[in-house]
Structure to design on (188 residues):
């Protein structure tokens, strides 16, 4: 049975596993420091994924301390605007490969029914993630790549279950239990 506590436990185990893998990678590449780490506190990224609000989204990060960032993202979520807000823990902010963990709240599922828009809905809930910032050698700008584990609300599960028994509705695909996010960021 899939319950909220089991989803949270799965999220925590997922993040712990990714952190351990990231730490191994970073230890192997520990001598690669970012030569001119920016002293700026704001970066803006363009990308895809929940933390960017969906497809073709924008994410703004405020980095008050090198190890902590607060972000907000907004983008297109197939039937409207999706958003997420959250916190990032940057593990090794002065390295070219900076692993991080994140927790956010916002859009994490959407239902789109062709020809029956009364069933269309965006769902919101928490999501947990782990990833890496890949800083360029000659630039302070960077790529971010992340694996996300959304904790979808019970209302989403109930809606999918109901749609599976609704005459005339054919479910062509359901979202995977995890998400992938990526984007390019510029410091300002």
């Amino acid at each position: 049975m899939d319950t909220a506590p089991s989803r949270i436990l799965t999220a925590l185990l997922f993040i712990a596993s990714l952190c351990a893998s990231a730490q191994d990678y970073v230890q192997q590449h520990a001598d690669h420091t970012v030569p001119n780490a920016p002293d700026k506190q704001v970066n803006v990224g363009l990308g895809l994924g929940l933390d960017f609000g969906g497809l073709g989204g924008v994410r703004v990060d405020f980095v008050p301390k090198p190890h902590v960032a607060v972000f907000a993202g907004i983008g297109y979520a197939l039937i409207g605007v999706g958003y997420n807000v959250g916190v990032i823990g940057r593990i090794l902010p002065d390295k070219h490969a900076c692993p991080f963990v994140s927790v956010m709240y916002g859009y994490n599922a959407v239902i789109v029914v062709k020809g029956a828009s009364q069933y269309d809905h965006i769902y919101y809930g928490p999501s947990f993630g782990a990833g890496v910032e890949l800083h360029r050698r000659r630039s302070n700008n960077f790529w971010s790549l992340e694996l996300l584990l959304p904790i979808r609300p019970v209302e989403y599960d109930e809606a999918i279950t109901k749609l599976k028994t609704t005459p005339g509705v054919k479910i062509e695909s359901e979202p995977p239990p995890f998400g992938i996010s990526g984007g390019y960021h510029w410091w300002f």
Notes: Residues 4-28 form the longest helix (25 residues). The mean pLDDT is 87. The beta strands are 42-49, 54-65, 68-76, 81-90, 97-111, 121-135, 142-150, 179-187. The domain at 4-187 is CATH 2.40.160 (Porin).
